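User: what does the whole thing look like in 3D?
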Amino acid sequence: MSNQETKPIDTKKIQEMLNRKKGKMKRYLSHCAHCSLCAESCFLYMAHDKDPQYMPSYKAINSLGKLYKKRGKVDRKHLSEIKGIVWRNCVLCGRCYCPVGIHIPSMIAFARSILRSQDVYPQLDEVSSESWL
Amino acid sequence: MYDFIRGPLIPIAFVIFILGLIIQLVQFFKLTKKKEWVYPPLEVKSEKKKVGQWIAFCFASLNGTLWKTDPAMTMMTSIFHVCLIVVPIFLLGHNILLDQSWGFSLWSLPEFITDVLTLVVLICVAFFLARRLFLSRVRAITTVTDYVILLIAAAPFLTGYLAYHQWFNYNAVMTLHILAGEVMLITIPFTKLGHMLFFFLYRFLIGGEYSFAKGARAW
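Assistant: Here's the predicted 3D structure for the full assembly of 352 residues, as structure tokens:
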């Protein structure tokens, strides 16, 4: 069993990280108009038959947004869901465009940092390529 | 209650609106700082062009922008936001009240024009609502708050339109109109509607590839 499945979650550490960037990230999350105009700027959204799960805003709201909503009190299941969103559904190419000016890549990158702090990240060297997430 | 909505709540709403925006602005400048390296905004090379070349250039520039990917929404949202600002500021009725209260007024648009523009705002709101209800990608990120925010933005225009045409009970509709305006003013600095201010801060002051200006600040 890997460390990712057994290590207890340090919610204090997550909360500390969330608080550190609260000013910026909470504003970004609260000013997102949920207009979905960012959708077509994501090549993964276009390549996946316009599946809403690949929309930049969907990814930010359901990863970092969820972490803030739950105030960092998340379990392994939540982190595992977020892991799929921030690593499989986003490659951080930085091409997403928000008309309001919200910098979505910084939100995804921050969610990744939080997950890494809990030892949750893709382990390409340990498992087959099909199940790396 | 009726007197409170038509009386003291009006200056209270304006004070909360202005103070709220100032607080948000101060917090923004505290959270961001000037940076030495600035992400250069995309530059357009200014070469001498004939009129035909300019028109072709302008159309070519739209490729890859929202005008190309989602022209309907881009057009509707642009019209909506312009009307949202223009109609209440240059409405004859508002300017008469301003003149009676403070002895000055702004230039007013003809009533027929503001009446049509109000209708345009309501059509845009109906379009946004339809998107939220029927487009899967918008539905995927829609929450109850989004509907409430849309209602807050639409209510002053809907009630204003009803009051102008004196449909239903005029006094009740007018009180609702004033209340809707006050609710909108109070909620702007503290909700999603704050993008009214933050759009300019994010797009002009924060450095980034998509900045409209130099964007010399960073979080």
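In plain terms: Chain A has one domain: 3-120. Residues 45 and 54 of chain A are 5 Å apart (CA to CA).
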